[in-house]
Amino acid sequence: MATTKKDIRALSKEQLRDFFEKQGDKAFRGNQVYEWLWQKGAHSFDDMTNVSKETRQMLEDNFVINHIKVDTMQRSNDGTVKNAVRLHDGLIVESVLIPTATRTTACVSSQVGCSLDCRFCATARLKRMRNLNPDEIYDQVVAIDNESKLYFNRPLSNIVFMGMGEPLMNYNNVIKAIDKITSPEGLGMSPKRITVSTSGVPKMIKKMADDDVKFNLAVSLHSAIDEVRTTIMPFNENFPLEDLREALEYWYAKTKCKISYEYVVWKGINDSQKDIDALVKFCKYVPCKVNIIEYNPIDDGEFQQASNEALENYISNLEKNRIVVNVRRSRGKDIDAACGQLANKS
Ligand code: SF4
């Protein structure tokens, strides 16, 4: 039966201190419990061994700890690890550990399914069921940090919000999760090692700039021509490139942080000189770099990776215009863990 008890991890440290005071206990007990929840990763009240049995029972009577559970874990031939994560209500999201020689990156989900409808993306086929809570996002990161230590003998070094969902459509919870990840009472990671990747929601990009966030911003651009972008990312009709450009200019004016554009080149869709010229022009509005990402086909075969010649053409045109460009080979393709492939198939 569904419980109506509140998830204790939705409480701030202050709220926990208040709770204990109202129970006639000492406020510092709240600090102790908070430490168990966030630094020691307690999964049950019984784990809190320096808290009295009566207090643990009282917590049990009032709260639950809705920890995520890694349901299945798959390892790719290239070392990539994909977790199918079960949430307290039985829904599943996926997160991925991507190792390279020098770093381990966690790619985490922010929603169950997605509210947007990018045609090349497997997640788009799952309708958005709900937003993830801050602790559900945080737990994905902790799970991957543990796997990184276990399999690669080093802690997690970077986080990208590029898993399932549009993070800016779950803005408040993503920000709360990042606060916890960067807090010394959480994982203490530098915000400079975190990248939020959006498909480009202009209003929310401006809000992030106003909120003076310290993490990096990436935009899944894929085309700098409205008609083409609307074909592959239909929400572009409501958030056209001119609005995106204005929001990005606002972001840069406030934060002075360069933007990364994520860009996949597809055969017959955005592989012409006209597409390249439009991207070069768009890149001149705001300091940026371009990440050209290898495409990972999903089942229907509608989208195909462009030829090497088309990719080379993109790279040489961008470099000629002094725009930094990286080519990202995809990882974890054999376990459907690569970009755009997350769809709860495991
Ligand atoms: S690419 Fe991102 S924003 Fe677009 S449908 Fe997939 S998960 Fe949603």
From TrEMBL:
<keyword id="KW-0408">Iron</keyword>
<dbReference type="GO" id="GO:0070040">
    <property type="term" value="F:rRNA (adenine(2503)-C2-)-methyltransferase activity"/>
</dbReference>
<dbReference type="InterPro" id="IPR007197">
    <property type="entry name" value="rSAM"/>
</dbReference>
<dbReference type="GO" id="GO:0051539">
    <property type="term" value="F:4 iron, 4 sulfur cluster binding"/>
</dbReference>
<feature type="binding site">
    <location>
        <position position="114"/>
    </location>
    <ligand>
        <name>[4Fe-4S] cluster</name>
    </ligand>
</feature>
<dbReference type="GO" id="GO:0070475">
    <property type="term" value="P:rRNA base methylation"/>
</dbReference>
<keyword id="KW-0808">Transferase</keyword>
<dbReference type="GO" id="GO:0046872">
    <property type="term" value="F:metal ion binding"/>
</dbReference>
<feature type="binding site">
    <location>
        <begin position="165"/>
        <end position="166"/>
    </location>
    <ligand>
        <name>S-adenosyl-L-methionine</name>
    </ligand>
</feature>
<keyword id="KW-0004">4Fe-4S</keyword>
<dbReference type="GO" id="GO:0005737">
    <property type="term" value="C:cytoplasm"/>
</dbReference>
<keyword id="KW-0698">rRNA processing</keyword>
<dbReference type="InterPro" id="IPR004383">
    <property type="entry name" value="rRNA_lsu_MTrfase_RlmN/Cfr"/>
</dbReference>
<dbReference type="Pfam" id="PF04055">
    <property type="entry name" value="Radical_SAM"/>
</dbReference>
<dbReference type="InterPro" id="IPR040072">
    <property type="entry name" value="Methyltransferase_A"/>
</dbReference>
<keyword id="KW-0819">tRNA processing</keyword>
<feature type="binding site">
    <location>
        <position position="296"/>
    </location>
    <ligand>
        <name>S-adenosyl-L-methionine</name>
    </ligand>
</feature>
<keyword id="KW-0411">Iron-sulfur</keyword>
<keyword id="KW-1015">Disulfide bond</keyword>
<feature type="active site" description="Proton acceptor">
    <location>
        <position position="94"/>
    </location>
</feature>
<dbReference type="GO" id="GO:0030488">
    <property type="term" value="P:tRNA methylation"/>
</dbReference>
<feature type="binding site">
    <location>
        <begin position="220"/>
        <end position="222"/>
    </location>
    <ligand>
        <name>S-adenosyl-L-methionine</name>
    </ligand>
</feature>
<dbReference type="GO" id="GO:0002935">
    <property type="term" value="F:tRNA (adenine(37)-C2)-methyltransferase activity"/>
</dbReference>
<dbReference type="Pfam" id="PF21016">
    <property type="entry name" value="RlmN_N"/>
</dbReference>
<comment type="similarity">
    <text>Belongs to the radical SAM superfamily. RlmN family.</text>
</comment>
<keyword id="KW-0963">Cytoplasm</keyword>
<dbReference type="InterPro" id="IPR013785">
    <property type="entry name" value="Aldolase_TIM"/>
</dbReference>
<dbReference type="InterPro" id="IPR048641">
    <property type="entry name" value="RlmN_N"/>
</dbReference>
<keyword id="KW-0479">Metal-binding</keyword>
<feature type="domain" description="Radical SAM core">
    <location>
        <begin position="100"/>
        <end position="334"/>
    </location>
</feature>
<feature type="binding site">
    <location>
        <position position="121"/>
    </location>
    <ligand>
        <name>[4Fe-4S] cluster</name>
    </ligand>
</feature>
<dbReference type="GO" id="GO:0000049">
    <property type="term" value="F:tRNA binding"/>
</dbReference>
<feature type="binding site">
    <location>
        <position position="197"/>
    </location>
    <ligand>
        <name>S-adenosyl-L-methionine</name>
    </ligand>
</feature>
<feature type="active site" description="S-methylcysteine intermediate">
    <location>
        <position position="339"/>
    </location>
</feature>
<dbReference type="GO" id="GO:0019843">
    <property type="term" value="F:rRNA binding"/>
</dbReference>
<dbReference type="InterPro" id="IPR027492">
    <property type="entry name" value="RNA_MTrfase_RlmN"/>
</dbReference>
<protein>
    <recommendedName>
        <fullName>Probable dual-specificity RNA methyltransferase RlmN</fullName>
        <ecNumber>2.1.1.192</ecNumber>
    </recommendedName>
</protein>
<keyword id="KW-0949">S-adenosyl-L-methionine</keyword>
<feature type="binding site">
    <location>
        <position position="118"/>
    </location>
    <ligand>
        <name>[4Fe-4S] cluster</name>
    </ligand>
</feature>
<keyword id="KW-0489">Methyltransferase</keyword>
<comment type="function">
    <text>Specifically methylates position 2 of adenine 2503 in 23S rRNA and position 2 of adenine 37 in tRNAs.</text>
</comment>
<dbReference type="InterPro" id="IPR058240">
    <property type="entry name" value="rSAM_sf"/>
</dbReference>
